[in-house]
Design goal:
Helix content is 52%, strand content 20%. It has a single domain, classed as Ribonuclease H-like superfamily/Ribonuclease H (Nucleotidyltransferase, domain 5, 2-Layer Sandwich), CATH 3.30.420.
């Protein structure tokens, strides 16, 4: 199973392609970021994100897309722009017919570290260890996207185990 993890943003959208092998081991296929300059008008930035995510979907052919749910504390403007980036990612997924699974930040932390209030360094180190990487993926947005993809793999594994019990 191949999962495309997405950490949405209008300036930087992180992505991570993670594959689960038949033996249950996960491996990082690729990760990176889609960047759009702040000087570019928002419609063009969103178009760039949409086109590049659509290209990633076409290349990686994921069975699922895992995306972080919108979470904000104070800055409504930031939340709105992140929401726009999420929207074009969801549109690209729908156009490709790929199911989308959304995870709250605390769910990602819980799935990877076992603690819903884990800090960014703990998450990144666990991603490195789980995928047997020599270093934490960079930049942070890419590492966050990989974490969401790994969270989805763990969640799917748990669902399968629960289904086997019933």
């Amino acid at each position: 199973m191949i999962v495309l993890g997405i950490d949405p943003g209008t300036a930087t959208t992180g992505y991570g392609v993670v594959e689960e092998a038949a033996d249950g081991e996960a491996r990082l296929v690729r990760c990176g970021v889609i960047e759009t300059p702040a000087t570019t008008e928002m419609p063009q930035r969103l178009l760039t994100i949409h086109q590049q995510v659509a290209a990633l979907i076409a290349q990686a052919r994921p069975a699922a897309i895992a995306i972080e749910e919108l979470f904000f504390k104070r800055n409504v403007t930031t939340a709105l722009t992140v929401g726009q980036a999420r929207g074009v990612v969801l549109l690209a997924a729908a156009q490709a017919g790929v199911p989308v699974f959304e995870y709250k930040p605390a769910e990602v932390k819980q799935a990877l570290v076992g603690y819903g209030n884990a800090d960014k360094q703990q998450i990144q180190e666990m991603v490195r260890m789980l995928l047997d990487l020599p270093a934490v993926p960079r930049p942070d947005d890419a590492a966050d996207a990989v974490a969401v993809a790994v969270c989805h793999l763990h969640s799917q594994r748990l669902r399968r185990l629960m289904d086997e019990q019933t």
